Amino acid sequence: MVMIVAIDGPGAAGKGTVARRLAEHFGYAYLDTGKLYRAVAKRLLAAHADPGDAQAAEDAARTLGPEHLADPDLRREEVARAAAIVAQDKGVRAVLLDFQRRFAAHPPGGAPGAVMDGRDIGTVVCPDAPAKLFVTAAAAERARRRTLELRERGEEAIYARVLEELEVRDRRDSERTTAPLAIAKDAHVLDTTELDADAAFAAALVFVVARRASRLV
Ligand code: DC
Questions:
Q1: Closest approach atom of ligand 1 to CA 8
Q2: For the chain, what is the domain count?
Q3: Which of 58, 107, 128, 174 suits a disulfide with 111, CB 3.0-4.6 Å?
């Protein structure tokens, strides 16, 4: 049986770093599911289509290929903004749900497990995952991290604007009707506000090791 680690949480809470490091530690496959929504959004922007155009968005989701997921522009702010709109579309979510479930059932390379991070992994995509983490942090701290990250990439970033955009996206993610951002009943909440990347990983590792062990008894 494939071991699934589901990691959800708001943007810039540190879930990507925790997820990547867990996958590396256990030799599991890793899927950043936000990339799927970003890739759909990027394709629409490139085609000068409206991110709210459901038909165009669903077509883009259905024909998504590995080349679209490797696009370095996916981290850009305008793509993130459009991705939050695309992610509200039921049809897009249905197409991407299929892809994500296939990844979880058959991790690439025959890996014995999968770590997936997103907003609805523990609640919708993999509700039976044996290990569910909800990684969060105070909005002010998330905005501070995102501002630094953007500046390191050479993008202009004003803290107050980054915070405002994060809060708008949080609201969009939490209030949408299909698969909103929510803490699964059986998720372990990891608040990284006061933790650096190593401490966050260490805490997540303790939790996943315990969940793996309980699965074996
Ligand atoms: O985690 P991220 O910033 O790359 O996500 C981009 C957008 O996609 C964000 O608005 C949340 C949305 N998303 C989602 O709705 N469900 C997921 N499983 C992953 C991301």
A1: 18
A2: 1
A3: 107
Rounded (10°) CA dihedral 31, 23, 7, 40:
-10
Is residue 37 within 8 A of residue 92, CB to CB? The reply is: yes
Does a structural domain hold residue 203? no
Ligand 1: residue whose CA is nearest its atom 14: 119
For residue 79, the enclosing domain spans 3-197
Q: What is the pTM of this model?
A: 0.94
The vertex-12 CA angle with 10 and 16, nearest 5°, equals 90
- CA gap 114, 176 in Å, rounded: 26
Q: How far apart are CA 120 and CA 10, in angstroms?
A: 11
Lowest-confidence pick of 25-34, 45-54, 175-184, 208-217? 208-217
**Across residues 45-53, what is the average pLDDT?**
96
Residue type, 6: A
